[in-house]
Structure formats: structure tokens, C-alpha cells
UniProtKB/TrEMBL annotation:
Residues 10-109 form the HTH hxlR-type domain. InterPro entries: HTH_HxlR, WH-like_DNA-bd_sf, WH_DNA-bd_sf. Residues 111-138 form a coiled coil. PROSITE patterns: HTH_HXLR. It comes from Mucilaginibacter litoreus. This is Winged helix-turn-helix transcriptional regulator. Keywords: Coiled coil, DNA-binding, Transcription, Transcription regulation. PANTHER family: HTH-TYPE TRANSCRIPTIONAL REGULATOR YODB, TRANSCRIPTIONAL REGULATOR, MARR FAMILY.
Length: 148
């Protein structure tokens, strides 16, 4: 497993070294908000990430324990990437980024989610986290995977 050599012990530095480029945030966006879980689904996003960059970023997320991968129950030659609890704990941060971006770039954004967030942010975050955990649990139920 490849690890990142840290420049310092600063918590902000730690976060930036993992999430400090657009591709990481866009992959997390797709996992959290767009229901995407496979390599091909990530590749189909509007931003057109290259296969090499996507592979590199997914491996970093795997190595950092933010996602894990399982074999697809529908296709044994396909992997699905799912958020660990460590990844799911990032949802409040991603909601804030989404909210900020929608405020200053009003030409896009998931309107339904934004309306839910504006009505009751804490509830919207909890529901999103629960939904992702439930989806994850149903996919791994029969695969004997330990998420700890």
C-alpha cells in the first residue's frame, strides 16, 4: 500500500494532501451525491477525468481508508467503490462546499438536495449519511468485509 509522505503534521496540510485537487472532490461528489460507484460511472462524469488520473485518485482514496472496493454482485469483472465511515464523515464538509458553490455559481447544482439543505441542513446531512451507509451495507452483506 502506497502512502503519502506528509510535509508536516498540520491537520489542514493532511487534508490538502488528500483532497487538494479538483479530481478528488469530484470523485467524492459522485460517490456522495450522484450515486456513482464504478470506474466507468466516474469516467462518464461531465468533467472527463482520464483513466490514469482516476486510477491514481481511487488508489489514494483506497490507501487512505476513505473508500473500499468490492466486486460487483452483478458483474464479477467490475469493482464498486464505496465510502467507509471515514469517507461518510466528510459529507458535512462536502455539503458546505456544495452550498457555497451554488450560492456563487447559481447555474447548477442539485436543486432538490439544496432545497432540503436550506430547510434543515442537519437533517439533510444525516439522511444522506444514512442512505449511503444503507446502500453500502446492502451491497456488502454477503461479502464478509470488515470496515474497521
Amino acid at each position: 500500500m502506497e502512502t503519502i509522505e506528509r510535509r508536516s503534521s498540520c491537520p489542514i496540510n493532511y487534508s490538502v494532501e488528500i483532497f487538494g485537487d479538483k479530481w478528488m472532490l469530484l470523485i467524492l461528489r459522485d460517490l456522495m451525491f450522484n450515486g456513482k460507484n464504478s470506474f466507468l460511472e466516474f469516467r462518464a462524469s461531465d468533467e472527463k477525468i482520464s483513466s490514469a488520473v482516476l486510477t491514481e485518485k481511487l488508489n489514494l482514496l483506497l490507501n487512505e481508508g476513505i473508500v473500499f472496493k468490492i466486486t460487483s454482485p452483478k458483474n464479477a469483472s467490475k469493482f464498486l467503490y464505496l465510502l467507509t465511515d471515514k469517507g461518510i464523515e466528510m459529507i458535512p464538509l462536502m455539503v458546505e462546499i456544495l452550498n457555497w458553490g451554488s450560492r456563487y455559481n447559481p447555474h447548477g447544482g442539485p436543486k432538490t438536495l439544496l432545497e432540503e439543505i436550506n430547510r434543515n441542513k442537519k437533517k439533510a446531512i444525516t439522511e444522506l449519511q444514512d442512505k449511503l451507509r444503507s446502500k453500502r451495507e446492502s451491497l456488502i452483506e454477503n461479502q464478509n468485509i470488515d470496515l474497521k
